[in-house]
Amino acid sequence: MAHLFCNFLLIWPLLLMPCFSLRLPSNAVGLSRIKHRSKRDDDTIAFLAVGDWGRNGNFNQSIVAAQMGYIGKKLGIDFVVSTGDNFYDDGLKGEGDRAFKTSFSNIYTAKSLRKPWYSVLGNHDYQGNVEAQLSPALKKLDKRWNCKRNFILEAGPADIFFVDTTPFVQKYFDNPKKQVFDWRNVLPRERYMSSTLTNLNVSLENSKAPWKIVVGHHTIRSIGYHGDTQEMIDHFLPILEAHKVDMYINGHDHCLQHLSNERGSMQFLTSGGGSKAWKNKIHYGLHNDSMHFYHDGQGFLSLEISRDKAKLEFYDVFGRPLHRLTLEKGNKKKLLV
């Protein structure tokens, strides 16, 4: 009963958001910011999104990485987004863990991928030394690496909001599998969750970017192995809907998929096919009306974004295009699949 009461205290203001403006605390400051300047004259950006990848090149990670290099060169990408579970199975042991080199630096070697990587943490990252993965020392080993718990990437016409979703998922605290999680700087949990949600809300409210994109590890809507994440629906979805977020990009399910939100025009995009995939468990019949595409296999996602249009494409492990969509801004938002 106490647990339910605490959750109610966390989410009750969010339930009012579709109808009322949420009154923000006077000390709310929003998320930390990183500025990425586009090299193009028209201020457009291009990037790749991949998740659930760090397996020392195994389970086709190296093959996916090679195809990312080809597509990255073709599009002239500005950066790469990682949707979490960056190092399996138990994150990094420390700043000197060889896995950083054998699962990242030595794998994504194409010239087109020698660009900044902006990463969120996944649940497997929390089973290692989280502070090591967040440490500036890793950037000295590979200058591409950028990983924080929660932050904004200002990139041309888009503000991309990276959020730390693992502390919101109750089963990791119930922990029936007796896994070891690194909860340093997360506990007390309720305070961390409240701060994360408040800062996200402040940052979305203050954003003037034409495109608002949120990146987190866990699914909101999915027909894949893990399915929907109820805590994401309870805590994050009302905020994203209230601020008319255009896209939510996640990993966690080791697949590629595209769904539309049942309310508004937000798109749910899963890019969790960076290495081991093929769970062969699909929730058929779930979200039939909003489902556009599902691939139970490895691959990645590309995005090209200008002020009035976003072109997205999913690729499989061999670099073959599987699914394309175009989002248009203007008086009426359009989804062209």
TrEMBL record:
Keyword Iron: yes
Cellular localisation: Secreted
Cofactor annotation remark: Binds 2 iron ions per subunit.
EC number of the protein: 3.1.3.2
Broad enzyme group: hydrolase
Residues where Fe cation 2 binds: 85, 123, 217, 252
Gene Ontology CC: one annotated term: extracellular region
GO molecular function, one term: acid phosphatase activity
Residues spanning the signal sequence: 1-21
Catalysed conversion reaction: a phosphate monoester + H2O = an alcohol + phosphate
A Pfam family assignment: Metallophos
Protein name: Purple acid phosphatase
Organism: Salvia divinorum (Maria pastora)
